[in-house]
Amino acid sequence: MQAKPRIAITYCTQCHWLLRAAWMAQELLSTFSEEIGEVALRPATGGAFQIELDGDIIWERRRDGGFPDVKNLEAARARSPRARPRSGAHRR
Fold this sequence. Notes:
The chain is α+β, with helices and mostly antiparallel strands and 92 residues long. The chain contains three helices and four strands; from the N terminus they run E-H-E-E-E-H-H.
């Protein structure tokens, strides 16, 4: 059995983006509940907001032009070098 992926959301505490990061974690867990092994929230500073999939950055606020929605992340996940095919599980 293959290990399920780990997602890490790094967010800026100075910008008060904890709620945004927690909402994104909840959306990811709701949408990909059977496919995600873990979601971690990592506080940072300096305007940071990035999402990593098994250590690969799949979204970075400055690089990618703002904050993602789940559809943006699904597309970014597909481009990840470690992308795994989605099962026939629930999709939004």
